[in-house]
Amino acid sequence: MKNYTNINDLDNLQETVQEAVVLKKEPLQFEQLGKGKTICLLFFNNSLRTRLSTQKAAQNLGLNTVVMNFGAEGWQLEYEDGTIMNQNKAEHVKEAAQVISQYCDIIAIRAFASLEDKQKDLREEVLTNFQKYASVPIVNMESSVGHPLQALADAITLEEFKVNHKPKVVLSRAPHPKALPHAVANSFIEMMQLQDADFVITHPEGYDLSADIVKDSKVEYNQKKAFENADFIYTKNWSSFIVYGKVLKTDNEWMITADKMKLTNNAKFMHCLPVRRNVVVSDEVLDSENSLVIEQSNNRTFAAQIVLKKILEDRDVF
Ligand code: CP
User: From the CA of 47, how far away is ligand 1's center (Å)?
Assistant: First the structure.
């Protein structure tokens, strides 16, 4: 695999999940694979899980890791061609991507959506320009449109905890005071479209995600109806995609509560974290034995590790 910018970069999701489950049992079995090679992790935005789990995954494969908080410490980058750079942007991505490629063998990037300019966010300016000008593989650690490492970790978690061959999985929007990006929900949907599952997306009207992502996945505007007989409830917040980047309502009607979970088939609760307690989900649900959030975070390491392993094993790259 040359790059990992989308879950569809994997040749086969099911096989990759099985490989990750095996890798999880003995994470150091490929520690010679990355010996003498370096990965640069570039963060344009904050992180806890992505930063630590990707670093841990790289370490398990013997890679050296360089981390840069680009948003806080790097030069502000220009992405447009032909710009007269006489304002606050000191360096063009053309040079930056080529320079960073000289220092490392893989570049991983986190660059969230601005939620101000829809077309610019959909172009994935940072990720696509690094991919265009870098000479090494690129890994997406959450871009403006997707978070495929999270989606792969979620697929591993679903595999580990599913009881039915074809579980009912519900993606539910929950309230949040801040406008949040669509990336986690987008990648979760793309991942679920590769699964043999009864998959339902539920959210209030006005929070419809991009039709290019949702495609023919089922959408149900009645949360309680969607929850009936669910085996997994995956919760995430996102701002409106239609009234781009806006929070339309701030009430807690869509919060995940124990009463709503009673409508399900004793469903497991999932969230990518970080999560706001008693805003997105009640303490009772988050602290229950059905909550998988800590194991989802654990699986971030093995999702990242299987992706880096596939890149390191690509003979056309190395
Ligand atoms: N889930 C996730 O990506 O967590 P961080 O934002 O802390 O990396």
Answer: 5
pLDDT in tens, 294-317: 999 999 999 999 999 999 999 888
Overall average pLDDT of the 13-33 stretch = 98
Nearest alpha carbon to residue 188 among 139, 221, 152: 152
Enter the tokens of residue 92.
């063009």
The CA distances from residue 181 to 87, 116, 146, 178, in Å, are: 28, 11, 9, 10
Q: Which of 43, 47, 184, 295 to mutate to test the pocket of ligand 1 (most atoms within 8 A of CB)?
A: 47
> How far does residue 316's CA lie from ligand 1's centre (Å)?
31
On whether the CB atoms of residues 306 and 188 are closer than 8 A, the answer is no
**CB-based contacts of 251: which residues, under 8 Å, 6+ apart?**
175
280-294 pLDDT, tens digit each: 999 999 999 999 999
Please state, rounded to an integer, the average pLDDT across all residues of the chain. 97
Ligand 1: lining residues by beta carbon, under 6 Å? 47-50, 142, 150, 272-274
Q: In 14-105, at which residue ranges do the beta strands (DSSP E only) sit?
A: 38-43, 64-68, 77-78, 91-92
Q: What's the rounded Cα separation, in Å, for the pair 243 and 245? A: 6
Q: Which of 42, 139, 299, 300 to mutate to test the pocket of ligand 1 (most atoms within 8 A of CB)?
A: 300
Q: How confident is the model at residue 146 (pLDDT cuts 50, 70, 90)?
A: very high
With tokens 């994997």, the residue in question is: 10
Quick check: bond before 274 cis, omega within 30?
yes
Residue nearest to atom 3 of ligand 1 (CA): 50
| CA gap 213, 199 in Å, rounded | 14
